[in-house]
Design a protein that fits this description.
Blueprint: H1 3-8, E1 14-19, H2 25-31, H3 35-43, E2 45-48, E3 61-67, E4 70-72, H4 73-84, E5 86-92, H5 94-98, H6 110-117, E6 126-131, E7 141-143, H7 150-162, H8 173-180, H9 185-189, H10 205-208, H11 225-231, H12 237-244, H13 254-260
Parallel strand pairs: 1-2, 1-3, 3-5, 5-7
Antiparallel strand pairs: 4-6
Length: 269
C-alpha cells in the first residue's frame, strides 16, 4: 500500500487490465500516460496488467479495463468469469466496443478465409464471428477509438475516484474541427468524410491534415449515416461502404449501411 493510501486509511480500488483479440494499442495508451501514471498508482491498486507487470490476479476487481473483441470460445468463457469478478467493467478501444478490424470477417464464411490465411486451418479454434464485449456481458462504460484517447481515459479514472459520472463527449468530429480551426475537407476539397456521424475523441486528426474522417471512434448517438451519404458530395454508395468498413464497421448504424451495399470490399456472402 502506498504512503498516501496508508495516511488516508482508505482502500485503493483494485484495477485489472486484460485483453482478448487486439493489438495492445489501447493498453499502451495507459502506459504512455507517463507522469500521470504516478498519480494513478497512488489512487488505484493495479493488480492485473500483463502488458506492464508480472503481478497477476484472478479478481475480484473494482474496475476492469477490457481491450479486444471476443473471437474464441475460450475468450468468451474468460469474459463471463471476469464479469462475475468485476464491479465496474469498462471496454477500451474499437475492438472491445465495436468488434474491431477483425469483425470484417463477420461478412464472410468462417471456413474459406481460415483456409486462405493459415497453412493449418484445422488448428484454428476461433468462433465464426468476432464480436464486441457488450454482445456477451453488461458493460458499465466504454472508451472508444483506435487507440483510445488518453484524456478520456484520465477523465474516466478521475470520475471513478471521486464518485461521479465521467464526462465523455458524444459530439461529432465536425465540432472538434471547428474548435481547431480546421478547413472542412468536404467543402474545400470534395473529400469523403465521416466526421458528421463519428464521435469525437481523436482531436479531428485526419481532417486537420487534409484527410476525411474514417470513423475510428465509431458512430455518435443518433448518427444518421443514410442522410450523410445522400447529401454529401464525394460520398456515394460505393465510397461510403468502403469508408465505413474500418475499425468500427460492426457498430450500428455503420453495419446496416454496409449490409445494404453488399458488405465490405472483398466480402463473400
Amino acid at each position: 500500500m502506498s504512503p498516501t493510501a496508508r495516511r488516508s486509511g482508505r482502500r485503493r480500488p483494485r484495477v485489472g487490465v486484460v485483453k482478448f483479440a487486439s493489438c495492445d494499442g489501447c493498453q499502451l495508451t495507459l502506459l504512455d500516460l507517463e507522469d500521470d501514471l504516478l498519480a494513478i498508482a497512488e489512487r488505484f491498486d493495479i493488480v492485473e496488467f500483463p502488458e506492464a507487470t508480472s503481478r497477476r490476479s484472478a479478481g475480484p476487481f473494482d474496475v476492469l479495463l477490457v481491450e479486444g473483441s471476443i473471437s474464441t470460445e475460450e475468450q468468451l468463457e474468460e469474459l463471463l468469469r471476469l464479469r462475475r469478478e468485476s464491479t465496474t467493467l469498462v471496454t477500451i478501444g474499437a475492438c472491445a466496443t465495436a468488434g474491431g478490424i477483425q469483425a470484417l470477417r463477420n461478412w464472410s464464411e468462417h471456413g474459406p478465409w481460415a483456409a486462405t490465411v493459415y497453412p493449418r486451418p484445422e488448428l484454428i479454434e476461433s468462433l465464426a464471428m468476432a464480436t464486441p464485449v457488450a454482445d456477451h456481458v453488461t458493460v458499465d462504460a466504454e472508451l472508444r477509438g483506435c487507440p483510445i484517447d488518453p484524456q478520456q481515459l484520465l477523465e474516466l479514472l478521475t470520475a471513478l475516484v471521486v464518485g461521479r459520472r465521467p464526462q465523455l463527449p458524444d459530439e461529432s468530429v465536425c465540432a472538434e474541427c471547428k474548435r481547431r480551426g480546421a478547413t472542412c475537407v468536404v467543402v474545400s476539397q470534395g473529400t469523403a468524410c465521416l466526421g458528421p456521424v463519428t464521435r469525437t475523441g481523436c482531436g479531428a486528426l485526419c481532417p486537420v491534415y487534409g484527410r476525411g474522417c474514417y470513423g475510428c471512434f465509431g458512430p455518435r448517438n443518433d448518427a444518421n449515416v443514410v442522410s450523410l451519404i445522400a447529401n454529401t458530395a464525394g460520398l456515394d454508395d460505393s465510397v461510403a461502404s468502403t469508408r465505413l468498413a474500418g475499425f468500427t464497421a460492426w457498430a450500428e448504424p455503420f453495419r446496416s449501411v454496409i449490409d445494404d451495399h453488399g458488405g465490405p470490399p472483398g466480402a463473400k456472402p
